[in-house]
């Protein structure tokens, strides 16, 4: 039987981090559904190469490319490489993201700018590049990774929650602009997912957080990957401009 994403090509940004980030979970879910995947990382390219090997084990093509999503020239080089390798692009997942936490009154401009540049501007730059290709193909799926913090806020994350709320507005506008060309744009809002990004949360706080999750556990990269693969599939053809929350019920 044909897999749901067989013959499709995908870019997943920010799939480096120590082999246990959300990007890896997404790349593997897309590969298991049959897609070829280009994986990027900014600095940890060796980690991205390890993810590419894991994808190849799933039986599809994979390459790892270094890219800083906040840098327009670097993004251009990434999309040039993708078209060179595959000639088309069906799926873009804007997953690269950073945190630089601090209380509002003590937050440096630098920390504000860095988070907005990577999370929000990076999503814009990659989406713009992908949309150019997808419009010509009259088919495409763009999936942006936002966060529940973009919806409910979180003390110490003014920059991060602003960037993630920005991604939601951006998703809705892009969905309206690109819908006529059969390009869907959706966002996935994870809750608390166990990755290097959330390693900073100490054991006691983790236990408290877990108590707030009706499903009684923290999320995994696979939990997010499955939803992204669904949004990339034909089963989700009539869904656009939506935010799908994947938080174990934390924000119900
Ligand atoms: P990680 O910190 O584990 O991974 C982040 C990835 O983004 C890394 O591969 C990193 O590459 C890459 N990256 C960072 N900056 C850039 C940049 N400028 N250009 C390209 N790549 C970059 O994070 P998670 O896997 O936990 O998070 C993935 C996404 O999910 C993020 O957008 C995050 O905000 C979001 N999210 C995470 C939640 C969680 O609980 N973990 C909850 C809600 C949302 P490198 O390693 O090379 O620096």
Structure explained in plain terms:
It is a single chain. By secondary structure, the protein is an alpha/beta fold. Helix content is 45%, strand content 15%. The protein has helices at residues 22-32, 45-57, 72-86, 109-137, 149-152, 158-178, 203-211, 221-232; strands at 9-12, 36-41, 62-66, 91-94, 140-145, 183-190, 243-246. Strands 3-2-1-4-5-6-7 form a seven-stranded parallel sheet, sandwiched between helices. It is globular. The mean pLDDT is 96. The structure holds NADPH dihydro-nicotinamide-adenine-dinucleotide phosphate. NADPH dihydro-nicotinamide-adenine-dinucleotide phosphate is lined by residues 13-17, 21-23, 40-44, 67-70, 95-98, 118, 122, 145, 147, 190, 192-193, 195-198.
Describe the secondary-structure layout:
Layout: E1 9-12, H1 22-32, E2 36-41, H2 45-57, E3 62-66, H3 72-86, E4 91-94, H4 109-137, E5 140-145, H5 149-152, H6 158-178, E6 183-190, H7 203-211, H8 221-232, E7 243-246
Parallel strand pairs: 1-2, 1-4, 2-3, 4-5, 5-6, 6-7
The structure holds NADPH dihydro-nicotinamide-adenine-dinucleotide phosphate (NDP).
NADPH dihydro-nicotinamide-adenine-dinucleotide phosphate binds at residues 13-17, 21-23, 40-44, 67-70, 95-98, 118, 122, 145, 147, 190, 192-193, 195-198.
Proportion of residues in helical segments: 40-55%
Beta fraction: 5-15%
Distance between the termini: 37 Å
Low-confidence parts: none
Please give the order of strands in the largest beta sheet: 3-2-1-4-5-6-7
Shape: globular
Query: Cα-atom Rg, whole angstroms?
Result: 17 Å
